[in-house]
From TrEMBL:
One GO BP: protein secretion
Protein name: General secretion pathway protein GspK
Keywords on record: Cell inner membrane, Cell membrane, Membrane, Protein transport, Transmembrane, Transmembrane helix, Transport
Localization in the cell: Cell inner membrane
Stated family: Belongs to the GSP K family.
Transmembrane is among the record's keywords: yes
Signal peptide range: none
An example Gene Ontology CC term for this record: plasma membrane
Entry-linked SUPFAM superfamilies: GspK insert domain-like, RuvA domain 2-like
PANTHER family: TYPE II SECRETION SYSTEM PROTEIN K
Source species taxonomy: Bacteria, Pseudomonadati, Pseudomonadota, Gammaproteobacteria, Lysobacterales
A Pfam family this chain is assigned to: T2SSK_1st
Length: 167
């Protein structure tokens, strides 16, 4: 309609905050260029924010800690939007290097455990093990020409696996 434009983003091209490992979260937060709280602490706080009980995980926070800090209490339900992460204790500071639009463009609260390397942003690709800016640039240039059809072809492109040879 008129000059309206829109785009669709595959959630598998985003950072799945509810299913990512502490190591991947560390790599995402490293994009901010400064030390943050440990990833395990942030992930435990996210889990406690969402679960229905008042039991604490290690270095985490429940309703009483939020009240003492002057924050809105946890919802005790799954997150509905990536921006809701900023309500979880410690996450606002951890993500302060991202604008609200960048949070929405990089993070998914759905149950996403794998990354679609054909739709992931550079920021998300950098969270994959062994990726650096040079490899990310190569991947992004190559996928404009043709998509990666398998994880084997992606790893071969990056030189992580040798091609199988016939006996």
């Amino acid at each position: 309609m008129g000059n309206a434009r829109f785009s669709l983003q595959d959630d598998h091209g985003l950072f799945g905050v509810n299913w990512s490992s502490p190591a991947r979260l560390d790599r995402l937060l490293a994009n901010g260029g400064r030390a943050q709280e440990p990833a395990e602490t942030l992930l435990n706080r996210l889990l406690d924010y969402q679960d229905e009980d008042d039991l604490y995980r290690l270095n985490s926070a429940e309703a009483d800690a939020y009240r003492k800090a002057g924050l809105a209490r946890p919802t005790n339900r799954p997150l509905t939007t990536p921006m809701e992460l900023t309500r979880v204790m410690g996450w606002k500071a951890a993500l302060d290097f991202l604008s609200p639009a960048e949070i929405n463009d990089a993070i998914s609260v759905d149950t996403v455990s794998m990354v679609n390397v054909n739709t992931a942003s550079a920021r998300v690709l950098l969270t994959l093990a062994g990726m650096d800016q040079e490899k990310v640039d190569r991947v992004m240039a190559f996928r404009k020409l043709q998509p990666f059809l398998t994880d084997v072809s992606f790893n071969q492109f990056l030189g992580r696996m040798q091609a199988r040879r016939s006996p």
